[in-house]
Amino acid sequence: MANTWGDDKILSYNDVVLRRSDLDILNGPNFLNDRIIEFYLSYLSTLHTSPTISLIPPSIAFWISNCPDPESLKDFMKPLRLLDSELVILPVNDNLNVELAEGGLHWSLLVYYKEANSFFHHDSFMGSNRWNARQLYRAVSPFVSDGDAAYRECSDSPQQKNGYDCGVYLLANAQVICKWFSSGGVKNRDELWLGDVKETVPDVANHLREEILGLIKRLMSEKSVSK
Question: How many domains does the chain have?
Fold first, then answer.
């Protein structure tokens, strides 16, 4: 059976394959899917090339959080080498069904910063992913530290104004935090990137759908010219 129009592949970028339906998601007031989240995190990894930054794809973060076998998880985590990372970016999704691909209704962001040996949870919808973030924190903590890392709920994180922009805020937070880290940041352990997030994320989020659409179209054009 031939692919429908929305299933047409439009771009392969690193390990991510985008489809035409992803453009529709970005054009409208829609919940961002796993592919778009993974694409933009992959793009951020090309902007911030320090080997001490790890941007974890949604599917990997989900498996870490929900893997039922601790021994399998140990083997799975080895190639990620998170102990070598100073900054780890982890998408959080509220899907609890490991058999349901791209499930869930809400995205948020969990960040580990080695210098503070702490995890920070940024949730743009009244902390509704708090339980899921703590589950991921408990699962990943032994692989980034001695298991004694602290957890902080960032209750003053900028909040979305609607019911569908949680993924946009996840990516806006990731963008701002990676930029803070790459620029040297404020090394005050209490402030870190929190001031930058509070000040700039709302404006970044307002323009991010358009930015990602423009980025995809530019990459599509560049690949077309290079053929």
Answer: 1
